[in-house]
Design a protein that fits this description.
InterPro entries: Ald_DH/histidinol_DH, Ald_DH_C, Ald_DH_CS_GLU, Ald_DH_N, Aldehyde_DH_dom. This is Aldehyde dehydrogenase family protein. Keywords: Oxidoreductase. Belongs to the aldehyde dehydrogenase family. It is a single chain. The chain has 492 residues and is α/β, with parallel strands linked by helices. The protein has 15 helices and 20 strands. A 7-stranded mixed sheet has the order 14-15-16-13-12-17-18, sandwiched between helices. Strand 3 and strand 4 form a beta hairpin. The longest helix has 23 residues. The chain is globular, with a radius of gyration of 23 Å. It binds nicotinamide-adenine-dinucleotide. The site of nicotinamide-adenine-dinucleotide has 32 residues, from helix 7 and helix 8.
Length: 492
């Protein structure tokens, strides 16, 4: 049995992946209309396999299967659900090599990142919600009329989980684990760019004992089956992670039907280095904040704001260090930056870098594609851009860092809060009072101090403003998959 550990991935090879089918009602099957689409390895640009292109008829079947499984799963005692979720974590760890290989192949994620982050976090999420599944309680309430009054927390029903391309395993388990813990059933639609690990997870969930129909996986296009899922009257809740543009549309469609929603959308976090920071540590965190997952990280830190006295030194240090961040084959254990997940993501980054030049930005590192096959872009640092540049204001979602100067704490906070987004933010300071004072004023769902990307299933995250609403992780996520019913019994 293999386990997740710290050993280098020297033996991991690109896997051969069989063509994907749909997983509906505990059965693998071909799509009703027989369509397929290709899956591309972003580090070579070649097709590695194909998966089923589900149609609306398949989505209807998946929702029906989830509906049919709901009563049984909801009635399964929390302790028993917890045992099954623990087994999911065990099987994830036992099959970690397969998961790492498939996820790295599909997304272009360095295996050095994928094993400890994507795969281990997936196991930890199932463990975390297994623990919470045993404590889903209501409360008794004392009221002045003669009665016995209490609340019950009940599952919502069928959850549509719609996930993006960048963290397929983590962002599907951040929905499926709490949804199952609370007694819901799920139809998962992974991103069309990166559908493979969702299919492997379907196998793992079944192996762990999750009953047929409790989790169903339909692969296909957002505009076809994603849209249909949002509108489906049999769906009781939508858990969506993706871009702000699609999220806004999804919220208008599902919100119009009064479906509860969790909306995890785009981000464009500011990372502030104050003059009293430990500068060396701060520069390390700044680099991690923008190269992590090749910059395809909603909570990445693509906007570095630096106190004026440190500005020139920080820009110079970044220009020196960033070109040495190892870029290459995701299956090489030394790689830190892999390819971007697809050509469309890479061209978007190219457009932003071209715009930065027009807006007066100074490229001090990177700035172009790497000279090799696949969708590689050199990690890029752009100094001196004005706040008004679209490159500062919009989400780039690639390995690009803009560096801007500020004079006062108030100015730094105003710049940090000055985009439509509010997912994450961070600051570097050795001054404790400043750390708390600034954290309180930053408009973001999570604030990191003196490091970046510190995440755990126990720590809730989610957005404000155009970054969405609702929280994943923590007990907050479990609560989002239940509703409260009050029962009042007359004692008269
Ligand atoms: P996307 O919005 O293009 O797609 C997300 C999902 O929505 C995919 O499964 C897609 O097929 C589906 N979809 C597309 N059109 C749809 C429609 N009309 N109806 C229903 N579903 C539809 O996002 P992406 O490019 O895959 O992911 C990148 C984006 O996700 C970035 O903006 C990033 O910031 C965001 N993101 C946010 C978080 C977070 O926690 N807030 C986490 C990861 C990624």
């Amino acid at each position: 049995m293999t386990t997740v550990d710290d050993r280098p991935d020297t033996t991991l090879r690109r896997p051969d992946v069989s063509p994907g089918r749909l997983f509906i009602g505990g059965q693998w099957r071909e799509p009703a209309e027989g369509g397929r689409f290709n899956v591309v390895d972003p580090s070579t640009g070649t097709v590695v396999t194909s998966v089923a292109r589900a149609s609306t008829a398949d989505v209807n079947d998946a929702v029906d299967a989830a509906r049919a499984a709901f009563d049984g799963w909801a009635a399964t005692p929390g302790r028993h659900r917890a045992r099954i979720l623990h087994r999911v974590a065990d099987v994830v760890r036992a099959r970690a090599d397969e998961l790492v290989a498939v996820e790295s192949l599909d997304v272009g994620k360095p295996v050095s990142l994928c094993r400890p982050v994507d795969v281990e976090t997936t196991a930890e999420q199932y463990e975390y919600y297994a623990a919470l599944a045993q404590g889903i309680d209501g409360a008794t309430r004392q009221i002045p009329i003669p009665s016995h009054a209490y609340t019950r927390r009940e599952p919502l029903g069928v959850v549509a989980a719609i996930t993006p391309f960048n963290f397929p395993l983590i962002l599907s388990s951040s929905k499926i684990a709490p949804a199952l813990a609370a007694g819901n059933t799920v139809v998962h639609k992974p991103a069309e760019d990166t559908p493979l690990s969702a299919l492997l997870m379907a196998e793992i969930l079944a192996e762990a004992g999750v009953p047929g129909g409790v989790v169903n996986v339909v692969t296909g296009y957002g505009s076809e089956i994603g849209e249909h899922l949002l509108r489906h009257p049999g769906v009781d809740k939508v858990a969506f992670t993706g871009s702000t543009a699609v999220g806004r549309h999804a919220a208008s469609v599902a919100g119009g039907q009064l479906k509860p929603m969790t909306m995890e959308l785009g981000g464009n976090a500011a990372h502030i280095i104050f003059e009293d920071a430990d500068v060396e540590k701060a520069i390390g965190a700044a680099i991690k904040g923008f190269v992590f997952n090749t910059g395809q990280f909603c909570m990445g830190g693509p906007r570095l704001l630096v106190a004026a006295p440190l500005y020139d030194a920080v820009v110079e240090a970044l220009a020196g260090a960033v070109p040495h961040v190892p870029l290459g084959d995701p299956f090489d254990p030394a790689t830190v930056i892999g390819p971007m997940a697809g050509e469309r993501h890479l061209s978007k980054v190219e457009r932003h870098v071209a715009q930065a030049k027009k807006d007066g930005g100074r490229i001090v590192a990177g700035g172009q594609r790497a000279d090799r096959d696949g969708f590689f872009f050199h990690p890029t640092v752009i100094a001196d851009l004005p706040d008004s540049s679209s490159v500062v204001q919009e989400e780039i979602f690639g390995p690009v860092l803009t560096v801007q100067r500020f004079d006062t704490e108030d100015e730094a906070i105003a710049m940090a809060n000055g985009t439509p987004y509010g997912l994450a933010a961070g600051l570097q300071t050795e001054n404790l009072a400043r750390a708390h004072r600034v954290a309180a004023r930053l408009q973001a769902g999570i604030v990191w101090v003196n490091d970046w990307a510190m995440l755990d299933p126990a720590i809730p995250f989610g957005g404000v403003k155009d970054s969405g609403y609702g929280r994943e992780y923590g007990p907050e996520a479990l609560a989002a998959y239940t509703r409260t019913k009050s029962v009042v019994i007359s004692l008269a």
